[in-house]
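Q: Hi! First time asking for a complex rather than a single chain. Here are the components, and I think there are two in total. Is that enough to go on?
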Amino acid sequence: MTVRRPPPVRLASPRFQIPIAMKTYRLLPLLLLALALPAQAQDAERGDLLITNATVLTVTNGTLENTDILVRDGRIAQLGQGLSAPRGATTIDATGRYVMPGIIDAHSHIAISNVNESTNPVTAEVSVGDVLDPFDVGLYRALAGGVTTSHVMHGSANVIGGQCETIKHRYGVLDPALLEMEGAPRTIKFALGENPTRVHGRGRNIQPSTRMGVEFVLREAFSQAQRYQEAWDRYEAERRTNDRAVPPAYHERLEVLADILAGEILVQSHSYRADEILMLMRVLEDFGVDRVTFQHANEGFKVAPELAAFGTDGAGASVFADWWAYKFEVYYSTAYNAAILTRNGVTASINSDSGELNRHLYHEAAKTQKYGDLTDDEALALITINPAKQLGIDARVGSIEVGKDADLAIFSAHPLSIYAIPQQTIVDGIVRFDIEADPDDVRLMTDPEEQVEAVTLWQGHDHDRCLEGTYDLVDFMTIYR
Amino acid sequence: MKYLATLLLALALAAPAAVAQDWAPKAEQGAFALTNARLVTVTGGVVNGTLVIRNDKIVALGPNVDVPADAEVIDATGLSVYPGMIDSGTQVGLAEVGSLPETRDFNEIGDLVPQMKALTAVNPNSVVIPVTRTSGVTTVITEPSGGLLPGQAALINLHGYTPAQMHVAGVEMVKLQFPTTGRRGWWDRRSEDAIKKDAEKALKKLNDTFDQALLYARIDSAYRANPEADRRPEYVPSMQALVPAVRGQQPLLISVNAARDIQVAIEWVEERGLENVVFSGVAEGWRVADEIAEAGIPCLVGPVLSVPTRQSDRYDRAYANASLLRQAGVQVALRTGETENVRNLPYHAGFAATYGMGTDEALRAVTIAPARIFGVADQLGSLEVGKKANLFVATGDPFETSTDVLHVFIDGYQMPMTNRQRQLYQEFLERRPGVEKHAEGAVETN
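A: Yes, that's all I need. Here is the structure of the assembled complex.
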């Protein structure tokens, strides 16, 4: 229905085909622009590969011992024993090693040069896909922790923030567009609670300054989008009989909001407290939206039955393994959150929201065995098939199955053990991390003006990377650090 | 219904103590025997047998130990006993809710406030404390942060109702945040020159302060030697606080991370003739490990779970740092640098173990090594007769997330294994009512 950006590489994606058919006139300027740009429609590299004699943790179909995985053209072609490699394909002997699906981080701010457009409580029109940075070494460091896919999110300054981007860790590509996971559903960041009320209410003296206000920022935005859509629908109908019908004014923000209401963009809402989680579910129900994933959701466990009962498939919750107490709305948290959610039938995932945690999400998932005794498959699902479901990419990634993308992580020991060391990480059948072969320095670019390489000291977790780019950041860091 | 009421009444009359315990289980001291246990002593290998606790101490340990008649027996068949883990750098008790200034007590106004004592502000009733100790972490350094000399760190046990009850062996250390040429985070956008100038300025300020402290210490000594003759020196709290450090009576805790800063700090320590210093953080220690080893300065290393300091660094440097320092011959203890997640100390140690250190050495780095560095190895850090009963009983290797910690003893007190996070789990795992207002089957029918 709408278009964020017009690079030609996107014209092949399903996102674009529908709107072109429906509202070509609204796209005309963009199409002209697209034609003016040099054609560069280029697919990310895909590989052939044979992994032999591995313990394969499929996640969805149990554990397969002494199994080979044959990869052709970036996809899993066959699982079995005694498979042979296609001519020219790399073979990895995984004897004694464990292969799991590439880890999916459902909440990240990796590889982007901006996080927040914090100038309005509603900024649905912006997208972090416009500021992707393929040079971020963090992409590689996450690969070295088995991560192959990240959901790169806008920050949490606004009630309705910007659109997010699901990327693959194809570290080494220089074209930002090649990081994008082609065909992944569109997603958008919402944020409830302390962050938007602080930035807009207390920071700018406009609504929302309370959780009451957050609800009505949402309701007003959705109502405007509904009316906008109705105006276009009326116009569509009218112009069949009246070729001088006047179209409504085009409004990008309302276009995006209308797409949310049409179910074309998945809502990913930063949230902590139980009350605000319930509020958003009510609002979405009122506007006929039946899919949502709550991000962080530290108090998701308190309303796990309600989350499970939401919409057709339940609401998702993507949580931290054990982060808490860094602000008041996470004071009444429990590290048993993921286990309680899982036991109550909620599709739960464990995310990083951090350039530190995303290097050991396998360890974060393993903590659910300490906090709630999840089984191996349940724990692994939290960082593979479950986040894939939440992002609408579970047909492509999140488990080791024939036909799925060959996104794989090979470990020296069972990945839920503290002693496991990632050995190779594979994206689309291409080995993007190899502990034996890679150099120490993997930078793709160095700053020509830098005299001495900067030393950046670790000062604890950047709990509020979510607030990076907000007006009071400097003040905030001064008091917080 | 009538039966239920009678039963409840009977219960209330018969066992008020038991009911009270359900509400708030208390720590108990006495005699305990952990039998059939795998005792990971740390200093004396692994012993299969019995460990006896009486009051605050370990009184017997070995394969042929008799169980005292009055001891409460805990059958530890299939279980392992470890000395309580020590985190060598935290802010436990000094901050309750990170973003709320009202709950943060680790950073007093002023760049030079070494007189500020973490021990004064430690909240013994912090919700964080039970969450932490149930993981087997029994003892921590809790430290102020902020300016050049932010105050004094203290070694505390994670049980006690007053700071004095928590304080271990009077261990306190003035903390020095050594002038840094590193960036303080991604948000630190100072130019290279500005960083350099700031560091130089800070170093000058540090030197001036220590010169004054030396002078103050001399005047103080002179006055004490002859109180009649000399005029009493003016009381300057910041100077008074530095006296034990400049005299070497108390370790000086130097927080330093960038390689260049570590080198400058080593020079500074040598120039000043300071013999009792400990480095903390030491993120880039691996780059200058030999120099640290030669200087003979012990290091409190960590957080292990942190990102490399330079873009060009190998991805696993932070994991491997402690091991590389140890291999160079540096005395190493581990720290999380955390407040609410000090419970992850065994996992920081686990990553250090995995990336080169090995399980045994990593275990030492969270037990006997810090005990030695802080001068309390006669009391803590291993399972030995005569030492304080700071220990825990686990289902296996404490570095593995599949391991459960079943019992924790601090100063011989058997700790209740509850905390708010567990209480929330118990309440919400099977919430009643569930999604309906009345849970199924809960509606009265008669």
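A: The longest helix of chain B spans residues 192-225. Let me know if you'd like any chain examined more closely.
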